[in-house]
Amino acid sequence: ISGSPETGEASSGPTPAPRRADKPLPAICDPNHLLHRVVVLVFMCFLGFGSYFCFDNPASLQTQVIKDLDQNTAGFMQLYAWYSWPNVVLCFFGGFLLDRVFGIRLGTIIFSLFVCVGQVIFATGALVNRFWLCEVGRFVFGIGGESLAVAQNTYAVNWFKGKELNLVFGLQLSMARLGSTVNMNIMGWVYSKVADLVGSPGHFTLGISLMIAGVTCLFSLFCALVLGFLDKRAERILHKEEGKTGEVVKLTDVKDFPFPLWLIFIICVGYYVAIFPFIGLGQVFFIEKFNFSPAEARAVNSIVYIISAPASPVLGFLVDKTGRNVIWVLIAVVTTLAAHMMLAFTFWNPWIAMSVLGASYSLLACALWPMVAFVVPEHQLGTAYGFMQSIQNLGLALISMVAGTILDTRGYLLLEVFFCTCVCIALMAVVSLYFVDYLRGKRRTLHHALIFLPYFL
Question: Rounded CA gap, 395 and 140, in Å?
């Protein structure tokens, strides 16, 4: 990534007038100073807050959405499917748009606008009781949501380096999970307050509640504008180039992907389709099976995000220090399967299973995604990660619809069995990956032994 603040590389723009030596910039205004970069980091962390807050608005208002918009569960899950559909394609082209078309600053603002506009359309669809308009809103929201995360990471790499990056990425992830957690626990309260003001619950109350949630997207847009200004100012002062994602996507690389990478793809899809659709449907599950109040159901449903916020940086450090990513992925998948089985076949306190699920989810994210870099050469990394995100979103879109249909026709028990089956597919892929890795290691050992054998004869 070219042009970090510390390198001071020259840009092609006009050279600014030299500052007078006797009037240095205050620390908070100096792009080279840590204090200024901390200010940038604050805006950087809040850049994705609105997107993550509004992503799970349907989950936090599951009962209200189904009732007020007169939908079944299959229709409700379309709200998540429509978010994922555009990202089946944009995962390949988001980095290209940021690097070659818009630039990181304008691109971040444009994707933030997509998030804001999508949320407004979604809320308007509820206001006028037109579910198809809600679906359009979620589609537009999805166009901006995933690409905004790419822009956020690009800003991080452009402003920080080395060991700082691990902390920065951890803080960004924690803030994202904080947005999801706050949404889960506050939107039900917002809906009830709006209902008190309006006079009764209904689609109009739902629409106003979603409009209020959209304020967080406006705040993230404000952060995008401030970041663009600060980055442009730093470019002028430090003579650096505008940051780039560094992603190089060539679809022809897909035919050269090794077998272990395809196993990683299967793990990714099989695992994540048992997490996000479950959270999307979790609120009513905890109300019906465990007789929780709506507030308690929202709280236990958000525990996955609550645990993920502080656990991800810690587990990431642990995986980095110990290695053995395949073993950590295996542990994460097995414990996730155990958590789903507890929820499906026991009446144990669901806080136990959801806490296990939260820790497992964090561990898998830390161990699985870096494994891509172990099995493909560096020039194929952009394509590999893009393809991995693409099939993940494809899987989420399809499984969201399937999960809704299963729940409508068969109930929560069969739905949990379905999620357990998805995790079992991921488990078989992990075990296969372990043996492939083991056999390749033995083959390498045998190869080296044969090379040195003549020296011992």
Answer: 19
